[in-house]
Design a protein that fits this description.
Blueprint: E1 11-16, H1 25-37, E2 41-47, H2 49-53, E3 63-67, H3 78-84, H4 89-98, E4 104-107, H5 111-122, E5 132-133, E6 136-137, E7 145-148, H6 158-175, E8 182-186, H7 197-208, E9 212-217, H8 219-222, E10 229-231, H9 234-259, H10 263-282, E11 290-294, E12 300-303, H11 309-324, H12 327-335
Parallel strand pairs: 1-2, 1-4, 2-3, 4-12, 7-10, 8-9, 8-10
Antiparallel strand pairs: 5-11, 6-7, 11-12
Helix pairs in contact: 1-11, 3-5, 4-5, 6-7, 6-12
EC number: 2.3.1.274
Function: Catalyzes the reversible formation of acyl-phosphate (acyl-PO(4)) from acyl-[acyl-carrier-protein] (acyl-ACP). This enzyme utilizes acyl-ACP as fatty acyl donor, but not acyl-CoA.
Keywords: Acyltransferase, Cytoplasm, Lipid biosynthesis, Lipid metabolism, Phospholipid biosynthesis, Phospholipid metabolism, Transferase
Length: 336
Amino acid sequence: MHSERQEGSPMRIAIDAMGGDHAPQAIVDGVLRAAAERADVEFVLVGDEAIVRALRATWPRNVRIRHAPEAIGPDEEPVRAIRQKKRSSLVMTVQMVNDGEADACISAGNTGAYMAAALLYVGRMPGIERPALAPVFPTTGSWGALVLDVGANVDARPQHLLQYAVMGSVYVASVEGVKNPRVGLLNIGTEATKGNELMKAAYALLEQANLNFIGNVEARDVLAGVADVIVCDGFTGNVLLKAAEGTAEAIFRVLREELTGRWTHKLAAALLRPAFRRLKARMDYKEHGGAPLLGINGPCIKAHGSSDARAIHNAVRQAIAFVERDVLGAISRQFG
């Protein structure tokens, strides 16, 4: 169980230095940015000490390295990996939260292994039946939208979706500063009678709950910012996530092809480059850092596997805000 930080002691964030497509360089670079920004926070890079230490001649006083001799690969079977590699950087990072040695943890590594380790070593919060992976989707009309669940649990029951809605609302209000967040239920139509039995039962629970429930939301409207919290089962949410990522990649790929095909297009592209950069920044997951594992009894942030230094820096900011704004306490009070 996660131990509360003693009053007066510095906040400590544990980061899996070996997880992710660009580890350990991107992880180290992102943490160093955060360390320069927050001298009052201690950062622990967990990974192969010889490899990590060799990346830099000198280290800030608020960054230290904890040696982990093993690493979990992206394609390893999650449960087997965390049981066989207990001295891996991912497992040791999570264990630091469980042991009270860190106030929050971050990994860009194997998503399934990270979720399994968080469940095994940190555990669920009292009153929460299923945790949820909750990334922020970029939107055109607002700060974004928190979508949960996107894969922590493939199957769900109506009460799980209600718990997701409550946790998501607390997180958005606490970390993003959104007052009275709008909650939408992802469905195949906006009418209350739409969907399968799970959606219909979940709609009834959400309608009766003390939430700003706006009703059903269709997938095509998610990126338009119609709601601040989008609730769905993990199977549907993961399909939505992968479809959105693939669509964004395809659009930018086609734009590059079209704007570099002819010299006239290249000239237009040069003039529009600042606008394209702003567009890419608005739709880039790196701006939000990572996805919290809500319902876990400790702040655990899952960074995107392809995170660069900027994404890791923002994931650290996210973890710090999670701790400073006592998101765990706020969620606990809703289920107490």
